[in-house]
Amino acid sequence: MGMQKFDPGVELAEGTNVVFAGPCGLGSMILVGDGTNAATMEIYDHASALSGSVIKKLALKAGAECIVYCPAKPDSLAKGCVAVVTCTAGVATGYVSISS
Fold this sequence. Notes:
Distance between the termini: 15 Å
Number of strands: 9
Number of domains: 1
Number of helices: 0
Strand content: over 45%
Radius of gyration: 13 Å
CATH topology: Jelly Rolls
Helix content: under 10%
Order of helices and strands: EEEEEEEEE
Largest sheet: 5 strands, antiparallel
């Protein structure tokens, strides 16, 4: 089995973000908040829209600054990767690394 190549990470603003259209592997997720407000990042297995079930969710509690998800093996996404970043107030930024 060969090595998988991962992108260095895609920076995501708040809102709905199409990360990749097509089959891919979710290598890691990072959610950075402002240290005051709660924030979330949800991953959907879809090529272009917020549709279907949440595949993975990170929830940052109010007062926390960062949460990381990095599985030993990438999570498989059959259709693509759409990420939704939300924050109760303030600013949150998400980062996703995928392999294709």
